[in-house]
Amino acid sequence: MKMENVTMRSVMAMIMIMGCSFLIKVTIAKMDESKVIHVGGKVMCQDCTQDWNNWVKGSRPVKGSTVSVTCFEQNRVACYKSDTTDDDGEFNIVVEKTVFGKKLNPRNCVVRLVSSPGTSCNIATNFAGGKTGVKLRQPCVVYRDITKYMVGPFYYTTPACAAPDDATK
Question: What Pfam families does this protein map onto (predicted)?
Answer without folding.
Answer: Pollen_Ole_e_1 (PF01190)
